[in-house]
Amino acid sequence: QVQLVESGGGLVQAGGSLRLSCAASGSIFSINAMGWYRQAPGKQRELVATISSGGSTNYGDSVKGRFTISRDNAKNTVYLQMNSLKPEDTAVYYCNADFELFGNLWGQGTQVTVSS
After folding, report:
1. Are strands 31-39 and 18-25 parallel, antiparallel or unpaired?
2. Stretch 105-111: mean pLDDT, rounded?
3. What share of the chain is helix, strand, coil (3-state, %, to 5)?
4. Residue range 23-82, pLDDT digits in tens
5. Given CA atoms 21, 4, 88, 80 in this order, what sign does their dihedral have?
6. What is the rounded CA–CA span in Å between residue 91 and residue 72?
7. What pLDDT shows up at residue 71?
8. Which residue, among 102, 112, 111, 110, has the nearest Cα to 25 in the 3D structure?
9. What SS3 state is found at 3?
10. DSSP for 62-113?
11. Which of 34, 41, 47, 49 is the most exposed place for a label (fewest CB within 10 A)?
12. Is the pLDDT of residue 21 over 90?
């Protein structure tokens, strides 16, 4: 069984940094795109960043220049480095991966809270 496990969320002051990790485990053949999405209370889930298997990246407008997505294909892990955090970045952050054999899967989510 394949699953995604996120870590690295927490509470940080505005202007601070956090690094999220998401590791895929199980009988993985290969992973295409991986990414991060977030959902704040009362709002729809939105794109944060995605990265292809070749390393091409895409960012949501609200995080460009502050967040950096990367991945380690050997470890089946995707990272999100978040700098200059703002209170409006507060949300549950979800990892997403497109598996060659299993299709699109989501992680359980990790809470990020930015205090002003």
Report:
1. unpaired
2. 97
3. 5, 55, 40
4. 998 877 889 999 999 999 999 999 999 999 999 999 999 999 999 999 999 999 999 999
5. positive
6. 25
7. 97
8. 102
9. strand
10. TTTTTEEEEEEGGGTEEEEEE-S--GGG-EEEEEEEEETTTEEEE---EEEE
11. 41
12. yes
Contacts 24+ apart (CB under 8 A), 110-113: 110/6, 110/7, 110/8, 110/9, 110/20, 111/9, 111/10, 112/9, 112/10, 112/12, 112/18, 112/20, 112/38, 112/82, 112/85, 113/10, 113/11, 113/12
**What is the structure's pLDDT at 79?**
98
Confidence of residue 93 (pLDDT cuts 50, 70, 90): very high
Residue 81 has which token pair? 């480095």
Which are the contacts of 56, defined by CB distance < 8 A and separation ≥ 6? none
The answer on pLDDT for 96 being more than 90 is: yes
* Residue 90 token pair: 């507060």
Q: Is 51 helix (H, G, I), strand (E, B) or coil?
A: strand
